[in-house]
Write a structure and sequence with these properties.
The chain is mostly helical. It is built from seven helices and two strands, in the order αααααβαβα. Helix 1 packs antiparallel against helix 2 and helix 1 packs across helix 5.
């Protein structure tokens, strides 16, 4: 469910981000994702109470963002809370996959969900960097304007997958450092998580 909701959000965002009502709906949608993420973490070895401790203020700032869309302090706090929560969720999902010695359908969905959660987390970190250091990211169009969250999510996905297709580019040192960390995270995810699942699948096939 977490994976499906996140992918649905990617498709829905272009239809909703231009109006105030659309942004409000996106905020509510974001809260739904957060609640699903809490539910996902509570069903993994990660501590559920820690997820709730981080998740409650994150939901509160999600609501505040709907009313204070131009307030940099609110957006900065919300972005950092979102990033922390999503990284913690990814940690719980990866721990879940590594605790299981058999590859089942839920591991496959967890692999996709953890990947998208990490992409979401870095997008929020990019937003925080942009607020603290304006002009950290540029694009081919409107290079001087701040990048939208969807543009930064697009950059996050292209960086994490190592496709490098984004027209959004980091130009300041802190932004470039964060992008490099995400590039390493994407490679490590494939090397450690995906490779382990493939290895378990092959081992099970040979044992048969």
């Amino acid at each position: 469910m977490l994976l499906a909701v996140q992918l649905l959000g990617v498709l829905a965002y272009p239809f909703m981000h231009d109006s105030a009502s659309g942004r409000t709906l996106l905020s509510l949608f974001s809260m739904t994702v957060l609640l699903l993420a809490v539910w996902a973490v509570r069903n993994t070895p990660a501590l559920g109470w820690v997820a709730i401790l981080i998740g409650v203020p994150t939901v509160a700032f999600t609501i505040l963002e709907a009313f204070y869309v131009e307030n940099g302090s609110v957006i900065l706090a919300s972005s950092l809370l979102h990033a922390t929560f999503y990284f913690y969720t990814a940690n719980g999902l990866i721990r879940y996959m590594f605790d299981d010695q058999r590859v089942t359908v839920d591991e496959l969905y967890a692999t996709g969900a953890a990947f998208t959660v990490v992409a979401w987390a870095f997008a929020y970190l990019f937003m925080a960097v942009q607020i603290v250091w304006p002009g950290s990211f540029i694009a081919a169009l409107d290079s001087d304007a701040p990048r939208t969250w969807f543009e930064l999510l697009y950059l996050s996905f292209t960086t994490l997958t190592s496709t490098g297709l984004a027209d959004v580019q980091p130009v300041r040192p802190h932004a470039r450092s964060l992008v490099m960390l995400e590039q390493v995270a994407g490679l490590m995810y494939v090397a450690l998580v995906v490779t382990r699942l493939v290895g378990l699948t092959l081992t099970r096939a040979r044992s048969r």
